[in-house]
Amino acid sequence: MPNVAPEKIAESYRYCREVARREAKNFFYGFLLLPRAKRDALCALYAFMRGVDDIADNPARLDEKKSGLAKRREEMDAVLRGEHRAEAVWPAFCDTMERYSIPPRVLHDLISGAEMDQTPRVYETFDDLRQYCYCVAGTVGLACLHVFGFSDPRAPELAEELGIAFQLTNILRDVASDLEMDRVYLPREDMLRFGAKESDLRAHRFTDQWRAVLEFQSERAWQFYAEGWPLIRLVDRDSRAALWALAEIYLGILEHSATNLASRDCEVFSAPVARLSTARKLWILATARFQWNGEVNVLRIGNRDGRRTGGSLVGGRAG
Fold this sequence. Notes:
By secondary structure, the chain is mostly helical. It is 69% helix and 0% strand. The chain has 2 domains: 1-112, Farnesyl Diphosphate Synthase (Orthogonal Bundle), CATH 1.10.600; 120-319, Orthogonal Bundle (Farnesyl Diphosphate Synthase), CATH 1.10.600.10. The protein has helices spanning 6-23, 27-31, 36-57, 62-80, 90-99, 104-116, 126-148, 155-173, 175-180, 188-194, 198-202, 208-228, 240-262, 278-291, 294-307. It starts with 5 loop residues before the first helix and ends in a 12-residue tail after the last helix.
């Protein structure tokens, strides 16, 4: 979007900061630890992604949502070619994309993930689900990585792994609410492995078999955290505390979900949604700012891996 007045770009960033402050319940805490320019860039990315999610999740007819997502894709391509669009998010978005050399294909893949959600899908294998997780969350990790800054060629793969860990955490947290939207993000092969029936889940019968499925998914998420955690040491130094805080918040949500599952009198339809309190997030923020230590979490994750029997869960290989 060339020839945009600096004051218009600044106004756009102010708009994006307000969207992130209002909507990014978890991400915004990590943003606060970044230098101002990087913080603003992540707010611009978040505001764009929030707009995509709002189209995908609104109560409009299916054809309207599909049309809205297609239009969003066309608008993004147009502004990146330099065409003018009046919506407030675009100047900051384009400035961020150019300033941090973010590949547009990453955002195309994110929109594809939103399109996948418009038709109820059956995920036969974890590889199928992993592709969805990449589109809706791995892409976020890759886009953020360019803002964080990196030079190690291993970083993009690790950013994708950590993004998938975040999405698996969301899936475990949101089983009940996703079901209300006719969405089941659990591989059919894992249901068969533990003898869980989808009809029981849809009838709100939380059986021991379903508990086993969700515990299995929890272990899989832990392994993705273990795979992606070394990324924190590979991003630019001024971004490490922010990334640590984001990962720590999502790891805390996963631990909360696992605690719920471990309680024999608890089930996904009656348990409170796993989330961290504001006080806990502020504690993480303070720890990240002054004394974060990535190795603590590596040991924490590694100890879980040591207790697991069998092979890897990543990529659909049963453990």
